[in-house]
Write a structure and sequence with these properties.
single chain, 21 strands, 12 helices, 32% helix, alpha/beta
């Protein structure tokens, strides 16, 4: 049933990543005047530091018994990508206990159905977004590869992906020509590989950010650098206040601040068990790697390599902790070691990056309308799928605010699944 539009006043979106920008552009597209508030330096966040992969196949990772059972062999000190720093136990232990509860078969089944529905809409929503931005070349739909370095891992990995839920994406064996191309690019042995079709990538993170920010402003939106805080009105709604105390809006407010969203919502009565799931990357100028090659996942190393227009990026690691914890230089060192062992062209100047993915214990995002205030909405917690589901989320939240029924069923993503308001 449609939800009544709450106010003709200006809307405000807190957060300038891919989700926040997608919401803001969708609101402007519906004729709702919108302010986007975000700190300067948003280009360093997970939205722009990821592998650029439109992961329509990633119904998993998802809270499940299989995820829990595999954690031990994936630990960083065992050579894997999962890092649980002892100094961060106050963050990851409560989160892990909640994940165990969410991993029950009934929870997994609900989560899988919800993510499959969202991922089915991901690529169409991306096509619409780049069309609005008049930048179709930013979306590249060539799928991606997964490669293995041993016969045993190739056999096991191929069987896994052929049986796994992969949303709207399709998987096939590579052709002899594709396998030969991969083998010619690297010095490591490639024992086997598969190719996904129906997934994609962005052409370049910085170019995407430039295009979306320009589109928002062209549509009449206003951008403000800094932070915004929320306060309740006498009528129970919220107002957004700038750092200097000025009223930004008493109309619709959308929290899309990634891993920082929990701190904004908790004072309003929402239980938000969010954690910073930090990833690392290195990037070189890309010389020696084909510009038209889709992303390649070296699954034995939990490493994804993507060629952007700006260079070649290798990304990995799942490090649970807080946003503010200093980076662990061992992660970058291991990325460089992987690059050297595989034979990736990462010589010369190499840029290092760390960013925090916003993750909730059931690995589902939080998208919806708050029960704590009639004009408060939220869109965050997309774990590894922020880039993939940003446009879908933007369209859904804009529909809610406009009094329409979103195409995506948002019931599974309601924050009340964690208790609180």
């Amino acid at each position: 049933m449609p939800i009544a539009k709450i106010s003709p006043e200006r809307a405000l979106v807190i957060g300038g990543g891919i989700v926040g920008l997608s919401v803001a552009i969708a609101l402007q597209g519906k004729g709702i005047s919108t302010i986007l508030v975000a700190p300067s330096g948003m280009r360093g966040t997970a939205s722009w530091g990821n592998a650029g992969h439109i992961a329509t196949e990633q119904v998993e990772p998802l809270a499940s018994a299989a995820l829990v059972k595999s954690a031990w062999r994936r630990l960083f000190w065992r050579g894997g990508a999962l890092s649980l720093p002892p100094g961060e136990i106050a963050h990851w232990l409560p989160f892990s206990l909640r994940l165990l509860l969410a991993a029950r078969p009934s929870g997994y089944a609900r989560g899988r159905a919800a993510l499959e529905a969202a991922l089915a809409q991901a690529m169409p929503a991306w096509r619409r977004l780049v069309a609005v931005a008049d930048a179709p070349g930013l979306l590249i739909e060539r799928g991606h590869f997964i490669a293995w370095e041993s016969e045993a891992s190739a056999e096991k990995g191929r069987a896994h992906w052929l049986a796994a839920p992969t949303g709207s994406a399709r998987v096939r064996d590579v052709t002899p020509a594709e396998l030969a191309q991969l083998r010619a690019l690297v010095s490591a042995p490639i024992a086997g590989a598969i190719r996904f079709e129906g997934s994609g990538q962005i052409a370049d993170p910085d170019l995407l950010a430039d295009a979306l920010e320009a589109t928002f402003l062209r549509l009449g939106g206003a951008r403000r650098s800094g932070i915004a805080t929320l306060r309740r009105t006498a009528g129970g709604a919220v107002e957004a206040i700038s750092a200097d105390g000025a009223l930004l809006t008493s109309g619709p407010v959308v929290i899309a601040a990634g891993a920082a969203s929990g701190a904004l919502l908790r004072p309003l009565g929402h239980a938000v068990p969010i954690i910073a799931e930090r990833g690392y990357h290195i990037q070189s100028d890309g010389a020696g790697w084909p510009e038209d090659l889709p992303p390649v996942v070296f699954e034995d190393r939990s490493l994804i390599v993507t060629r952007f227009r700006s260079g070649l990026r290798a990304a990995s690691f799942v490090e649970f902790g807080s946003i503010a914890t200093p980076p662990d230089a061992r992660k970058w060192a291991r990325l460089r070691a992987h690059a050297a062992a595989i034979g990736l062209p990462f010589a010369g100047a190499v840029h290092e990056w760390i960013g925090a993915r916003p993750t909730l214990p059931d690995y589902l995002p939080a998208i919806g309308r708050s029960s704590a205030a009639p004009n408060l909405f939220y869109a965050f917690g997309h774990q590894h799928l922020g880039l993939t589901l940003g446009p879908v989320t933007g369209e859904a939240v804009a529909a809610l605010i406009a009094g329409e029924t979103p195409e995506l069923d948002l019931a599974p993503f309601d924050l009340r699944r964690f208790g609180g308001s």
